[in-house]
Amino acid sequence: MPRKKIKLEHSVEYLSILDEKGKPDKDLDPKIDKDTLLRMHRTMLLSRRFDEYQLRWQKQGRIGTFAPAKGQEASQIGSIAAVEDDDWMVPSFRETSVALWRGTPMSGLLLFNAGYNEGGEIPEGQNDLPISIPVASQITEAVGIAYAMKMQKKDRLVVSYFGDGATSEGDFHEALNFSQVFNTPNIFICQNNQWAISVPREQQTESRTLAQKALAYGMPGIQVDGNDPLAVYTATREAAERARKGDGPTLIECVTYRLSVHTTADDPGKYRDEEEEEKWEERDPIPRFQQYLKDRRILRKKDIDALEKEIDDEVKSAWDEVEEQIESLDDPLVMFDHLFEERPAYLEEQRQTMKQYREDNDG
Amino acid sequence: MAELTMVQAINLALEQEMEKDDSVHVLGEDVGVDGGVFRVTDGLLKKFGEDRVMDTPLAESAIVGMSVGMAIAGLKPVCELQFSGFSYFAFHQLEGQAARMRWRTRGRYNVPMVCRIPYGGGVRALEHHSESREAYYAHTPGLKMVIPSGPRNARALLVSAMRDPDPVIFFEGKAIYRAFREEVPDEEETIPLGESQIAREGGDLTMITYGAMTHRTLEAAEKLAEEDGIEAEVIDLLSISPLDDEKLSESVRKTGRVVIVHEAHRSFGPGAEIIARINEKSFYYLEAPIQRVTGYDVITPYFAREQDYIPDVARIITGARQAMAD
Ligand SMILES: Cc1ncc(C[n+]2csc(CCOP(=O)(O)OP(=O)(O)O)c2C)c(N)n1
Ligand SMILES: [Mg+2]
């Protein structure tokens, strides 16, 4: 037969557990324990309020450009809460909720956003990579780390984050292909927040879903309601089980929305209408999750009020801490640190030149 | 004549050339609806439509690779890479294809494309948004590398670049995008690629610079005149490759003393090549070792300390005084 069909049995599952009013599908509810649920909620709320404060501080010039996570808290927390603390985490540049969950102090994030390299330090014991700005480039590193875990027979997997726009970069495709070929324990979390700066999801790719991109590499891909922390959690949990069993990687597309600016240097008024934003405001992951927690009597209105107050104090005192820290960080000679294990002579000479110059000019 | 910022002047060059030549296409991330993240391409989509002003998916390699193909087949693409820090995603297309196509096909194909790339620091941006790595491109045979220093020469250089039969890397200094305005005539102006300009005349010292650093260098030259009575000649290179050897030689032979100022890293930076050229052509005219005032050989620090990295007026003056020492 010169022509025949090659049968490909491909489909992409869509998973949603909480409806828009916060009512769960009882059969699908992952029954997360109460402490974890409360911690998830707290971190989502903290991330939201932290974003809001940072937007204000950015306008006042206290910090520089940053990318708010607003709207994507469920995608971030639902996924990271489903893996172990000693698993690896490889972020892009918008994973504030994830960073907070992992234990990165707010003061560190603030210091980073205030333009100090010291803010990029990864706390000891946290298996996290630093913020990666070149879109999609971190995904290949995530595969390398996962391969190392496999070679060293460590029971650890790697969760990596990126956006819808990132799926257009070669690095994304190369990473997924390598991961499947080398059967590495990776979970790829694509936060499809509908926009890559001004380019809408429909213009980024003609594929119906982003999850289906995995299928080309022989990898399972699943699409979940990214504003539903239970759905994201469940999908990630399943992917983690598979990865730990040696069954390889998974791509999870979290359908969510960037409720805020791309970064503080961006003006969404130029390319999207408020109606769309309002539509997604109604699907805000935080009130929805709160409703679920209230219905389960895990959280009461007055707990939320108390938590809001606590978080407010926490964020403000993080800034106070940073302000104090900044005063001790006026030495620009640190720019010569951490380039190599040992500083070569030519670089030491440049460092001495800067030092001398500063002394001569009362720097 | 209108007083324009560099953003507006580049926009004017694009608009006029697109009007004149319908083979000119603009493509890149966010260049259409958004008008570019720096608004350089603002209004072009409305005027020329989405076939000629293309909002591409997020993939630098494809943006450049597609431009190479378009150029081979008779279009004149002007692609934008959002920041020089992301141009490396497309480096293999620039080095392996754009730069080599004419050479590889023995002249059968050429690649008349322009790759516009914002570069440089000073705008309190994030990592990868502040580097000055023009040396990568100037080091690549088959590419031309130009860097304007203000609205008027940006407009003229871009017109020349768009008409050039070969690939041109066009760096735009973010720090001077909106820092000042200049009179830019409505009627067309061009500056031949490979030609530098004398930004200030003087006979005591030659200061060689380009791009955003031109302004700090000019400021330093004024201070040197006031405080030391030194009259410095400031050469604004405009083209990093090809270098204007002739103008450099002329000035160096007149002054015998040279300081080079660039934001780029010191080692293997443009200054190193300029010194070599001067040594080759005018060594016996030199009265003192040539000085370099440059960025350090460190990754450009996050913005709280970027001004300690970028040469400032005081550092330039120090370098100039060293060049004047006996
Ligand atoms: C390689 C690269 N190209 C361009 C940019 C500039 N840029 C920063 S974020 C962004 C859009 C990213 O979209 P997406 O992947 O959907 O992530 P989101 O910002 O929506 O979280 C662009 C073009 C970059 N950081 N890296
Ligand atoms: Mg996106």
UniProtKB/TrEMBL annotation, chain A:
Keywords: Oxidoreductase, Pyruvate, Thiamine pyrophosphate. GO terms for molecular function: pyruvate dehydrogenase (acetyl-transferring) activity. Its cofactor is thiamine diphosphate. InterPro entries: Alpha-ketoacid_DH_E1_comp, DH_E1, PdhA/BkdA, THDP-binding. Gene3D superfamilies: 3.40.50.970. Residues 42-325 form the Dehydrogenase E1 component domain. GO terms for biological process: branched-chain amino acid catabolic process. The pyruvate dehydrogenase complex catalyzes the overall conversion of pyruvate to acetyl-CoA and CO(2). It contains multiple copies of three enzymatic components: pyruvate dehydrogenase (E1), dihydrolipoamide acetyltransferase (E2) and lipoamide dehydrogenase (E3). This is Pyruvate dehydrogenase E1 component subunit alpha. It comes from Marinobacter orientalis.
UniProtKB/TrEMBL annotation, chain B:
This is 2-oxoisovalerate dehydrogenase subunit beta. Pfam families: Transket_pyr (PF02779), Transketolase_C (PF02780). Its cofactor is thiamine diphosphate. Residues 4-179 form the Transketolase-like pyrimidine-binding domain. Gene3D superfamilies: 3.40.50.920, 3.40.50.970. GO terms for molecular function: oxidoreductase activity. InterPro entries: THDP-binding, Transketo_C/PFOR_II, Transketolase-like_Pyr-bd, Transketolase_C. SUPFAM superfamilies: Thiamin diphosphate-binding fold (THDP-binding), TK C-terminal domain-like. Keywords: Oxidoreductase, Thiamine pyrophosphate. PANTHER family: PYRUVATE DEHYDROGENASE E1 COMPONENT BETA SUBUNIT, PYRUVATE DEHYDROGENASE E1 COMPONENT SUBUNIT BETA. The branched-chain alpha-keto dehydrogenase complex catalyzes the overall conversion of alpha-keto acids to acyl-CoA and CO(2). It contains multiple copies of three enzymatic components: branched-chain alpha-keto acid decarboxylase (E1), lipoamide acyltransferase (E2) and lipoamide dehydrogenase (E3). The keyword Chaperone does not apply.
